[in-house]
Amino acid sequence: MSRRVLLSWSSGKDSAWTLHMLRKDPDVEVVGLLTTVNTTHGRVAMHSTRLAILEAQARSVGLPLHVIPLPWPCANEVYEHEMRRAIEDGLERGATHVAFGDLFLEDIRAYRIKQLEGSGLKPLFPIWHEPTEALARRMVNAGVEAVLTCVDPKKLSPSFAGRKFDHEFLDELPEGVDPCGENGEFHTCVLAGPMFSERLRAAPGEVVERDGFYFADLTWGPAVGDVQEAANNSMQRTPRTARRC
Q1: Under DSSP, is residue 51 helix (H, G, I), strand (E, B) or coil?
Q2: Distances 204 to 84, 192, 215 between C-alpha atoms, Å
Q3: Which candidate, 87, 172, 64, 180, places its Cα nearest to that of 131?
Q4: DSSP string, 158-209
Q5: Dihedral over Cα of 24, 52, 80, 190: its sign
Q6: H-assigned helices in the chain
């Protein structure tokens, strides 16, 4: 029996690669993307991807986007309530599974499983325990083009915000930083790859500090080939502290 899968879509490289792997399985039909969006700012939480770019990603991968609206700040009970609603909607659309791009954090995996217990939807973890150094290189070699949109300065220098996720970036990572950022060192937004029908015309602009993290704002602009030049230009400016909305 074919598995009809909703994919938890963060806008980043791991969820994009998960989609790529799911589509290689003849017994899987990916039926939609699930993404939580901060309704105050109109962005994907932590990745800080603008809603317009998120919608462009969904068009490029050819899947319906199901946005889960969340307030800011968001209490855990509100998050879980909205997730239950999304699960119920998924069941009504005939979904059988929800897939996640988690790699090795056992507590996160356990939380996902608990969320789906008794819901009628089963969890899938297609890239679980993939060695992250090899996986990161494989993504780049396959044509995944992503930009670091968020950096935790406690784990990685803010100078990496706005950088292109490529071999040069991986070569420069300090010891102890996971190449896929699985420990929260950084988050990305994907602009192109084998799961996309076309590149997204977006590039990093201003870098801001907000709530203890550094964010590179992705905006529509130059072609993806200009991403690294745009990133270099953005880092020549001193990151500013963002005003809270």
Answers
A1: helix
A2: 34, 14, 10
A3: 180
A4: GGGTT-B-SHHHHHHPPTTS-TT-TTSSEEEEEEE-TT-SS---EEEEEEEE
A5: positive
A6: 13-22, 51-61, 76-92, 106-116, 132-141, 167-172, 227-235
Per-residue pLDDT for 44 more than 80?
A: yes
Q: Which of 15-29, 75-89, 92-106 has the lowest mean pLDDT?
A: 75-89
Q: What is the pLDDT of residue 234?
A: 42
Q: Are 61 and 33 in contact (CB under 8 A)?
A: yes
The closest of 56, 33, 10 to 187, measured between CA atoms, is: 10
Strands 240-241 and 202-210: parallel
Q: What is the pTM of this model?
A: 0.88
| Sign of the four-CA dihedral 41, 45, 47, 51 | negative
* pLDDT tens, position by position, 88-130: 999 999 999 999 999 999 999 999 999 999 999 999 999 999 9
Q: How far apart are the first and last CA of the chain?
A: 48
Pairing, β 213-220 against β 145-151: antiparallel
Q: Check residue 1 and give its pLDDT.
A: 59
Please calculate the CA angle 126-37-243 and round it to the nearest 5 degrees: 130
Phi/psi at 27 (5° precision): -95, 10
Helix and strand tally (H, E) in the chain?
A: 7, 11
